Amino acid sequence: MLYEDGVVYRPPLEAESVLLETAYGCSHSRCTFCRYAAGTVPLQLVEPERLTENLALLAAMYPDRDSMFLLGGNVLAFRTAYLTDLMALIRRYMPRIRRISMYARGDDVNHKSREQLRALRDAGLGTLYIGLESGCNEILAAVEKGETASELLTALHTLDELGIPYGLSAILGLGGRSLSRKHALETAAFLGQVHPASVRLMTLTPQPGTPLQRDVETGRFVLLTPEEILREERLLIERLELDVEDCLFVATHVSNSVPLLGHLPRCKPDLLAALDDVLVARREGSVPAPRVDHW
Predict the structure, then answer these.
(1) Among candidates 38, 34, 112, 121, which has minimal Cα distance to 77?
(2) Is the pTM of this model over 0.90?
(3) Under 8 Å CB-to-CB from 85, ≥6 apart: which residues?
(4) Surface-to-core class of residue 100, CB atoms within 10 Å of its CB (0-12 exposed, 13-18 middle, 19+ buried)
């Protein structure tokens, strides 16, 4: 996503993809932890003239790239006909592009028919990156996520059925101190019911001006300490039993005090050992570098 400060937000797995500024804002704009929470930036398309100008520039800069990521809060919310036309336009400018990925909400998936989703898949839809945030309904309601765990499950099961890959992200600490254990356990249980290509964990970082930040300042929301975050993360990974052969686990966000990277399920013991090393070192007064450095 491209905010007014010029910072680009894209999934880390799209680092090699061409980035096309497609939309601004979010269709929901009420999550208490998000910079869009004020609702002042509704979801809107980039002007067609600017879009085509940017495509021409990108085609000249990256003629050999085969993947593209569409910048915007949840681009999948737009009409299917617009998205398929956009994908065709992208290929006219950049014929080597084979995979076009984007952010999405669960309700974006649920609002489309299977026929519409198949049309997008056949047009070149790549990975959908969906913010799960938590598998706990109590937390989803508290942060005004606008969708329940059951609704998210419905969306992901549809994507599984249609063979559309997706990556999920969750936010460590989102339940605060009172719901930390529930957050870890129910998020792990949720993930065990779906088949993500990747799982990404970030640590809750209150943004200025958001409802969450105000709740922190007034004491209504108690942030976890760094050690509590690590314990929550360890519990989540320990209880995580994914029904997939290979899922990329990414916890290298700048908000995370211990960067972790590996493939699940085979790297689970290494991920847990890396966290154990740090937790032991914290008790002893020294913190080692994480041990997990493989893919």
Answers:
(1) 112
(2) yes
(3) none
(4) buried
